[in-house]
Amino acid sequence: MANYTAADVKALREKSGAGMMDCKSALDEANGDIEKAFELLRLKGLKGVSKREGRTTSNGLVVARVAGGKGTLIELACETDFVAKAEGFVALAEAVADAVVAAGATDVESALAAPHGSSTVADAITDQAAIIGEKVELRRIAVVSASGVDAYLHRTSRDLPPQVGVLVAFEGADAATAHDVAVHIAAFSPTYLTRDEVPAEIVAKEREIAEATARDEGKPEAALPKIIEGRVNGFFKETCLVDQDFAKDNKLSVAKVLENAGIQVTAFVRFRVGA
């Protein structure tokens, strides 16, 4: 007779993120000792880490840290949404974010090398992957700095951790408006801050497409310049933050909202898990 209960299996699954049968097997071998079973899952899983390298990590979560005029955003990725909400995976993401900030890491390579306990972030991620039997990776990290930084994390599903993360770096005193802009960015996903940031080759391509489309539609030759400019402006309005209609009041552009609030956004970052 098994010397553990269904509640023990559930507790081990929540702690480790491992599958039910793996948890049962580990508890069998550990005679019902949850901590020993957890360690068995880790040791057995380490043997299969290399086999998981080619798998796709389309789930996970985002974590943000803001302190001292600097904001850090990370995306920790896994294979399934079950693991993404597991206690152990969420705790790992929080610990990784802390380690990244403490080390002052600004990219994935330096983040993986950051100290984590007696080892490194890379080792901690490998251990977690071994326990849960899935590929786990630190996919992205971004850092912004300014006199003011706001962070916004959005849950796309009530039972999952945050899947969308935004950092906004700004100058000025109106932190509430900066936060509203961060929420706007999460919803409207701009690519650039201003038109000046859009690469010239992309603008040229948009003009080319606009002209070809207008000609296919049989627009008068004399009207083409105005039509092309209108469509290119539409592209800017869709992709550039300051040109977008503000989420809370679409009668105002984001640029106007920032002007009214007396603040200037100097940079922003938006992560969506798996995107």
From TrEMBL:
The keyword tRNA processing does not apply. Gene3D superfamilies: 1.10.286.20, DNA helicase RuvA subunit, C-terminal domain (1.10.8.10), Elongation factor Ts, dimerisation domain (3.30.479.20). GO terms for molecular function: translation elongation factor activity. CDD domains: UBA_EF-Ts. Its main location: cytoplasm. PANTHER family: ELONGATION FACTOR TS, ELONGATION FACTOR TS, MITOCHONDRIAL. Belongs to the EF-Ts family. This is Elongation factor Ts.
